[in-house]
Each structure stands twice: as structure tokens, then as C-alpha cells.
């Protein structure tokens, strides 16, 4: 072990060169600590023993304290059983936390009464928000005293935030020098920038409440608009439209990169069936309800249903990774199945969006547009396949700059597809081409040795999404004007969304019949597909933009945007809460292992580190630590997982 420390009790010295290490603890004045004994799968603590120095070979001068012996044990389940029977249950005075990935062990004598500060809600909240920094670093000598952990952020965190603020200030200075008054306080660009900043802060607050951050961003946009802090002029609506289209490229690129080619190859029939049948059902229910309850024409009702039916990976994926980290549903590949279906739903919504907008807003006869729609789909698929094939060979895979070049190639190809096909009046081909190109790229990259979870390009687009998420949802929230809303109208929208949600749950359970999933697992995957977020926030305002550019049917397009926003506000937080709470009750838990949880070492920023269930018993073991005990082992490969569904 690289380092050992005792929280609130002083320092510890370890000889890391031998399997039997001597640990010297200073400032432990509690007599009960002299007879401490603790045992886990990998380590055993005995005491008291001989006092040694840091190297373990020179006697240390006598000093008050307790010396305990740390012994590394062979991996076996018997050690864990003994620990549960003797050490943990009979000696409740000692709690241990092992974290191999952080190279540290924490020992604490719980018989010593904790201070009221450590037990306060403020301490727990700060500890949750600020994890202790690991790895080499530097901070001023006075920093730990003036800014103690966890009440204050670390110097590294403060320096990082300060660097970002300086960078933003420099960028604002450059834009001010170029754009002039538009970037000054009160100008359009300045107002948009402030909206994005506050949207990010609103998302952070909701994230601390374990709710989807996008809901907080959307609410900030609504408040910002109705308070009168922003009013986008006609001159800058095109700029806002371009920002939305860039966010659209990021959304669908991530959707394509999240698809697992191996799982889809093994289970393409089952996945397509579970994706398209519930999608078509929900789209049809939404179309019927909004037609009769909101008086939308059938063309707009069908377009609205095809947009609302998409599943939101931005809400589902973080919840699934929390559950997957604890082992729920992995034995049958349920997380992989849910993510794959979400990606296919997005692709279906994109196709329907392109065909629908072409028919509704096209100036040509309907027959001509119907004949042109398959061409638009074929062109989008062809573009995506060709571009993904090009990215396979260019840049060359052993090039030291392969990662940034692939990021630039995929981003540039996506932007060209979305913006270019719009110019030639094939609007639906652009988003479809983005999904297909990213999926084709990840298919070839996995053949070259990149795992889906070990994919730096996906990590880069996750960072891009961190930037464009507050932009997209903040600007989407500005479409809502509360004074213009009618209570009966909002109630009708809520009824439409609820009816469609219940219908999708029922049809999903029926469509999953014949698989190896039990009823609880079928219910869970049905609940996980209820959330709406990024696709609705991107495609809903896109319909309004097309309507404004063609100067027709703007009121109907505003109704579609309203349905999209209310569906996000209703289903995103409810979906996150339901999936997080129902997962442990509806899914079967498998024994965690490194290969099972992560096929590659990429520390995805969408993953939320959670401790195993042992933390409820006083011992917490990080999920990154290897567990080699015999027990229930789920299949780690996508092939075996897919065969079980």
C-alpha cells in the first residue's frame, strides 16, 4: 500500500516492501484501540505489536500511541466469512475502509465518540460534494488550516475554477474586441452567455439533489425568459439556431458511439423489436391524444408523436451506470439492452423528423415529398457509412495524434452533414448521417482494438456535451412564456404524456415476452424508457425554426415545442428517481468484478463512483478493487450477455 492514514487520529507509517507491514499510529489515546483486530478479504490487522520506524527495521523511540500489525492475506472467501462472523459482528468498535484505486487504507476507532461537527448534515453534505484529491499535487502550506477538507474545496479545485474563469474572461475580451456592443453587458451575446452560466449552476444544484441536471437548466431558461432578462433579436436567432444544431451533432454522435456493435449483432432482432414496437405505440398514442385534446392537425400530431417517443440517454445512462456499478441487471445484459434501444429510438425519431418536416413544410406536392423521403434516408445512411469508413483509415491508427484527429474528423463530418443537407433541402438526412457515421466509426475502432468504454473520442464528446448541455436546455427553456399558458391547455398536455407513458409500459412488457427476462426485469426496462430529454429539446425547437423559416404553421409548431418541454419536466426527474429506486428492487444483483463492470480503463465522466453494499455494514470497498472470491459471476462479454436475453 502506498499510503496509510488515520482520519482525525494522526499519522501512520507502513512498510510497503513486505507482505507483513508494521503500522505505527500516533496520537491514538483510546485504550480500546490497543486490542483492535480486523480482517477483510485482503488484509488483517492485529495489535498490539512491536513499535518500528517507517522502514520496519529500526526501533522507534517510545511514544504514546498504539502499534498494530497489518498482514496481507491470500484471496479467499473464507477470510471474508470469518470477518463477518468474528471481527465485524463481535468487535463493532472498529470500522475500516479499503480503497485500492486510491492507494490508501483508512482506520477509525468508532468507540471514540465523534464530534457533533462530523455527524452534522453540513459535514455530510460537504463530504459528498468534495472528494479528497488523490495523486501528486502541490498546495500552499497554509491551505489545509485556512481551508480544511471537506468544508472548503481543495487548492487544485480552486485553481482549476480560477483557470476556467480567467479563460472565459479572456474569451469575452476577445469577443468584445471583435463584436463590440453586442458583447457588452446588456447586449445579446452577453445575455446569452449569462444565461448559459446560470443554467449550468442550476444544473449543478439539481445534480447535488441527485436529479437530472437538465431539469435545472430548463427551469433556469424558463425563469430567465419570464423575468425579462433575455430577448433574442431576429439578428441573433440564426446564431441561436446554429448553437442548437451543434448541440444536435454532439447528442447524436454520443448516441452512435454508445451503441455496442457486438451486442447488436448478436441480438439485432430482439433489440429492434423492443425498440420499434414500443416506439411506434407511444408515437401513435401521442398522435391520437394531441389531435383530439390539443386540436393539432394529423400531420403535426404524427410529427409530435415521433419526437416524443424517443428515449433520453442523458437521463437513463447515468442511472444505469449507478446500478451497473453495484451489479444490478448485468448478468442478463440489461444495461446494454436499454442503452442500445435508446440509440435506436433516437435514430427512428430522427428519420421521422426528417420525413415529417419535409412533407409538412415542403413546397412541393405531397407525392413528390413522399418519394423524396426514402432518398433522404438512403443518402443519410450512405453518408454515415462512407464517412465512418474514411475515419477508419484516416488518420492511421498508430499515429500519435490519432485521438485529436479522429475527434476533428467526426465533429467536422457531423457538422457538414447537418448544415449541408439542410441547404439542399434534405433536413432529415443530416442527423441520421451523424448517428450512422459515429456508429460505423466505433464499429471499425473496436475491430482495431478500441473498446467502447476505452474510447477517448467518446470522452471528448462527453466534454463537448458538458459545454452544450446548458446551452441547449437553457435556450429551450426560453421558449416558454408563462403568461401565455392556459391551465386547461397544460392539463391536456399532461394527460397526453401520462397516457402515452402508461401505454408504452404495457406494450413493452408484452413485447418482452418470450425472452429470459422475468416480470420484474420487464417492468424495469419499461420504466427506464419513460424519460424524455435531449432529443425532445433538440428536435422540438428545430420544428419551430423550420416553420419560421417557411412562414407557415408557427402556432402548431409552438404547440409541439410546448409538449416537448412539459414532457421533459414531467418524465426526466420522475424517470431518474424511479429507475434509481426501483433498480435494486426489480433487478437481480450479480457479484462485481473488474471485467464485468468495465471493459476498458477509461474513467468515463458519466460514471458515478459508488461504494458496494458493504458500506451499510460499516465497511466500504471500492468497486475498482478486485474481488476474487468464488460466488455468483456474471458474464463479462457482450456476446454471452446477449445470449441470455
Automatic annotation (TrEMBL):
Mind listing the GO molecular function terms for this protein?
antiporter activity
Main location per the UniProt record:
membrane
Q: Lipoprotein among the record's keywords? A: no
Where do the Cation/H+ exchanger transmembrane domain residues begin and end? 197-570
The UniProt entry, under Gene3D superfamilies, shows: 1.20.1530.20
InterPro entries according to UniProt: Cation/H_exchanger_TM, CPA1_transporter, Na+/solute_symporter_sf
For this UniProt record, give its keywords in alphabetical order, as a comma-separated list: Membrane, Transmembrane, Transmembrane helix
Q: What is the topology of this protein in the membrane according to its UniProt annotation?
A: Multi-pass membrane protein
Q: Where is the segment annotated Disordered?
A: 592-634
* Gene Ontology cellular component list: membrane
User: In which compartments does the protein localize?
Assistant: Membrane
Phosphoprotein recorded as keyword: no
Entry's transmembrane regions: 161-183, 271-294, 300-321, 333-355, 375-394, 401-423, 429-446, 458-482, 488-511, 523-544, 556-581
Q: Give the highest taxon in the source lineage.
A: Eukaryota
GO BP, sorted A to Z: proton transmembrane transport
The entry assigns this protein to a family as follows: Belongs to the monovalent cation:proton antiporter 1 (CPA1) transporter (TC 2.A.36) family.
Q: What is this protein called?
A: Cation/H+ exchanger transmembrane domain-containing protein
This chain's source organism reads Acyrthosiphon pisum
